[in-house]
Amino acid sequence: MEKTGGELSKVSVCLSPVLFYQYAEQLDSDCIVVVIDVLRATTTIASALNNGASGVKAVSEVSECIEVAAQLNGVAGGEREGKVAPGLEHGNSPLEYTRELLGGRPLVLTTTNGTRLLNLAQKHSPKQIITGAFVNLDAVVTHIRAEKKLSESNRLNVVLACAGWRDSVCLEDSMFAGAVVSRLRETGDFQIQCDSAQTVESLYNSAKSDLYENLKSASHFQRLAKLNLFDDLRFCLTPSTINLVPLFNVDTGLLISKVL
Amino acid sequence: MEKTGGELSKVSVCLSPVLFYQYAEQLDSDCIVVVIDVLRATTTIASALNNGASGVKAVSEVSECIEVAAQLNGVAGGEREGKVAPGLEHGNSPLEYTRELLGGRPLVLTTTNGTRLLNLAQKHSPKQIITGAFVNLDAVVTHIRAEKKLSESNRLNVVLACAGWRDSVCLEDSMFAGAVVSRLRETGDFQIQCDSAQTVESLYNSAKSDLYENLKSASHFQRLAKLNLFDDLRFCLTPSTINLVPLFNVDTGLLISKVL
């Protein structure tokens, strides 16, 4: 199965943080991890960077969020159950973090599963950790392809890590992973042998003609729809409106913008 | 969302034994668990019962398998890595357990993930535990529908539990779960709100025109194909050739045949 010349580049999909340990072996210096939390953390991260945030720090707890934001002279925000987290002024809406609000400062965002995945991935020192969402789909794919070309061995494994909802598999994160798998398969430069990757690619292909319509049945879509967050949903499910990749800096713990 | 008259009947899909704990709350006396290990454990269980085995006992270890088979005057069998488990005479081929070999005796089968799921499910005392595979797809669906009608409240939750491969999500188990979801949805009597259920239903719909062809890319298909087990694969992936449901008996720990 392996290509000659060490060019094996595998794409794998991790459907829940609970399953992440299975991908540990792959997380070496030839591997990019893409953390995915479409509704809404990784959409908000891309949006805030696009609106001039100097970086985004993802933290688990509200108290840590407030403390770190004070240290960094940043904006503190985050959600619990789809609403602004108690104790914070700002939530997790990608539309909330405007240029005016951010003023070039960093955003400190409290998330649960997304942050957990960032921490898990860091332990294994992959080549890079980035975040992905439909809003920066093209950018994520372009970045991965460019990194593969840049690598000495022309080898680059990719682990698409879905944050899900309280460890459950989520339709929207799975579907975004499927979108990336589909595009990487089309290039002919990547091997897609992971069963989860094949599953989500099929899911994406069945839904890509109208992501918004086809994601209406997703449990987290319905949760946000009950809170009337339709503008957020529309923004999160419109592909490739933002042309940057949030890139995790191991030294500072900040996600910073790589404009493509 | 809930129907009136306590008729809520939910279908959920658990994609890996690692995720099973998330379904614990649903596992009450109104819930059927379907354990799925298409290649090949749950196919072999259905096949052995169809060929006259008086019951099937699933155990984890080879030593236990030999001991229990001696106690029950049964046939011991099982696989490790797709091959006959070291120490046993018979493997995990559904074609191996003929009427001649079985002679009306029980089969004691050593499996890993399937047995683990049976044990996990038992702890929560659901209404029933059955096993499913493509070979008894129609029977599984017919049985579930009949049990719903028989229940006093006309309420029956269903958890479709995929065994996977070493905790990884498997294409064939996911696809079988999708086949059951698809058929239960068509009845109009079940709610399909679980994101995993929607994912596997989409997967099944994309592949149902030719299961065998579409499962050739599955990692466990390829593992068995390398061992030239094409007859087994063909048998495992041909739907509804066996009209019974293996039903777990809590008192004896045996799966026994319910002929439909």
Automatic annotation (TrEMBL), chains A, B:
It is an enzyme of class 3 (hydrolase). One of its GO terms (molecular function) is 2-phosphosulfolactate phosphatase activity. Keywords: Hydrolase, Magnesium. Its cofactor is Mg(2+). It holds the Pfam family 2-ph_phosp. It comes from the Eukaryota. It catalyses: (2R)-O-phospho-3-sulfolactate + H2O = (2R)-3-sulfolactate + phosphate. The keyword ATP-binding does not apply. Its EC number is 3.1.3.71. Belongs to the ComB family. This is 2-phosphosulfolactate phosphatase. It comes from Heterostelium pallidum (strain ATCC 26659 / Pp 5 / PN500).
